[in-house]
């Protein structure tokens, strides 16, 4: 029993230190990029031993891949799960856009959405980190498309809309707004994105669709 | 006269070497980011002396700023000037989107649109490079907005459209398509962006507006 408890404690401590390392790694990557991560730097900035950090992540690439996986979890917690609480249909499509914009505006990472940075950094480089980032992007687009398709199936969005096109369109507006808000240190792009997405959804909604929260037009 | 000719030749040679350095710098920055630029690396990769490169750009920051300025020139040549050849109004708004997508798809830089990378890299960092990138982005959005406002003034786009919102919307769709095309090594996002932008412009066009090239809907 004592041996088991000791092992449990050690595992729990290991999990906590892994968590601390990954939280810091996501923060660095959101500002400076995944290429700025290194075992040496994380150890120095977190006052841990290099061998301790190395025990969790055997190489820079493993560290980058673990950071991408951790960022997917954060994304699911802050964007996907809140949106799933909205009823299926038009309101869930709106909730995906709305949660994404909330997440981008929150001070979760210093450098805004982790994936905006990671996609721009790895889009033109081959390798496992690129593939992990591309898979995360593809999963998100598919989830968004499925929400639109469900709204069409429920008769809340008109049937002549291509679900992948509409999902791409709404997501693009939110993404660029998130990036502009950061670039200009200005929250106005979030309001602009909500206004445009809300107007777009109003146009494609059927007469039977429930109301979605609408944003006022610009003066 | 001889002295003048010698000076002219030296200036011309200096301008050529500056051009070669900046072309390579833009290419590196589009793939790996502006932070990957250094006088040492450029000298090594171009087989030039470090002091020769240093004579053109006195610091890493100066090199980064000169690279941003050079990228603005490339952008004007490939996007702004071709679009200006289209008649003012709806067709010029379409031409801006169309030229941007052409430019993103061309192998001008190995890493796709220089500014997609630069914005993501510098959006969360203060400093002169950030400010130069933000200014370039702001200029582009204003130019796009002015083209939409002109189309409204000419009676080709309905008057209840906010020019800045529509410009932002169309540009966002093109930008994210450019990034996805690179990330997935797939040209389909370009076609999707043209389809969405063309449909969007068809909706906001007045009855008096000229036709714009239209893309077929997805099957």
Oligomer: homodimer
Range of helix content of chain A: over 70%
Contiguous low-pLDDT stretches of chain A (5 residues minimum) are: none
Strand percentage of chain A lies at under 5%
Q: Compute the number of helices of chain A.
A: 9
The sequence of SSEs of chain A as H and E is HHHHHHHHH
Q: What's the count of strands of chain A?
A: 0
The top-level CATH class of chain A is Mainly Alpha
How many structural domains can be distinguished in the coordinates of chain A? 1
Mean pLDDT of chain A: 91
In short:
Chain A is built from nine helices and no strands. Chain A is an all-alpha fold and 219 residues long.
Write the layout of secondary structure elements.
Two copies of one chain form a homodimer.
Chain A: H1 2-32, H2 39-46, H3 50-56, H4 60-84, H5 90-105, H6 114-122, H7 128-153, H8 163-183, H9 188-204
Give a verbal description of the structure.
2 copies of one chain form a homodimer. Chain A has one domain (2-204): Tetracycline Repressor, domain 2 (Orthogonal Bundle), CATH 1.10.357.10. In chain A, 73% of the residues lie in helices and 0% in strands. Chain A is built from 9 helices and no strands. In chain A, helix 1 (2-32) crosses helix 6 (114-122). Chain A is elongated. Chains A and B meet through helix 1, helix 6, helix 7, helix 8 and helix 9 of A and helix 1, helix 6, helix 7, helix 8 and helix 9 of B.
Labels describing this entry:
homodimer, elongated, 219 residues, Tetracycline Repressor, domain 2, mainly alpha, 9 helices
């Amino acid at each position: 029993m004592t041996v088991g408890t000791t092992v449990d404690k050690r595992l729990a401590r290991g999990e906590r230190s892994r968590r601390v390392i990954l939280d810091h790694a996501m923060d660095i990557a959101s500002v400076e990029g995944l290429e700025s991560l290194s075992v040496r730097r994380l150890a120095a900035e977190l006052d841990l031993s290099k061998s301790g950090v190395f025990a969790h992540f055997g190489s820079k690439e493993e560290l980058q891949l673990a950071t991408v996986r951790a960022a997917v979890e954060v994304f699911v917690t802050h964007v996907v799960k809140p949106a799933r609480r909205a009823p299926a249909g038009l309101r869930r499509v709106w909730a995906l856009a709305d949660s994404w914009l909330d997440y981008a505006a929150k001070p979760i990472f210093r450098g805004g959405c982790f994936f905006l940075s990671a996609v721009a950094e790895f889009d033109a480089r081959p390798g496992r980190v690129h593939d992990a980032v591309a898979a995360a992007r593809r999963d998100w687009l598919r989830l968004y498309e499925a929400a639109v398709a469900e709204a069409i199936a429920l008769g809340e969005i008109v049937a002549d809309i291509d679900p992948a096109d509409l999902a791409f369109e709404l997501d693009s507006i939110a993404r660029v707004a998130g990036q502009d808000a950061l670039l200009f240190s200005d929250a106005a792009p979030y309001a602009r994105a909500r206004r445009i997405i809300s107007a777009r959804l109003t146009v494609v909604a059927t007469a039977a669709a429930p109301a979605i929260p609408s944003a006022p037009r610009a003066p």
